[in-house]
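pasting for ref
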Amino acid sequence: PSSRKSAVQSTAARPPARPSSPHRVDSAEAWECLARKGEIEKHIAAAGRLRSASAAAASHVADARFAALLALDSAGMVALETVPGFFEPALLPVLAALDARQRDLDVRGAVGEIGVYHGRSFVPLALLRREGEAAVAVDCFEEQQHNRDESGCGNEAAFNATLERFCCAHDVVSVACDSTQLAPADLLAAARGPIRLLSVDGSHTEEAVLADLSLAAAALAGGGVVILDDAVNADWPGVVSGLARHVFEAGEGEDRRLLPFALGYNKAFLCTARWQAVYGEALAPLGRKRARFLGHDCAVLPLGWIAAHFAND
């Protein structure tokens, strides 16, 4: 989950500043290594494509603060990168594209995240809300007895401070609990109804992922999207195992089974079967290619700077 991750500052266009901890990757050395391999030009080109996609997406985003984040060079994006946690800047146009398609289809509901840590990936979701939409944050925070994979210690006060800093604390409900024990009715009550956009970044054991996906499926709005973190990260094999069990064993029925429509930036993007083609088409302009994953045709997005060069080091 987000709470296990130390802060690695990064942008799509350049490597992050040199980390202060001796246990983290020396980004200057990583950049020199890339230079020796002739990879810098590829990253510059990728950064250009990202900025073009961001500019196009920004024109469809109603919230000026989210549009500012999409600019990537803005003070808002720089500020977000000072919040502890992992968040790929290139995810911003992906979120914008999903939100734009949901607006076109009049898909409504709350936004939320399971496993919020200090709120770095929660802020963009909160900024995508339309008038009247709530945001729900589920995390065990200081109740670390629920942290089965010893993934780190969240901090509710730090999370709340992040929300205040980015002016998105209104209509946010925090649920401090073990997400695997949270009833769908309680999540729906906290969100004031179904959820249209939900990030799942809780405990990464197979059983916890399976439970969180079942919870997400039960609370999802019609046309809603679930974004599963570390879906193809070899360091956390429980995630893809839990996802596979959900896809092939889901007890919720076909109308509740979450299926992949895209992969990228260390995430799997999921929805029910009815909406796979719709959202796959929405993300196609941001993709590199298409491939089969767990029996389903998916748009394959870039891997991302953090996932490609830092992983969980």
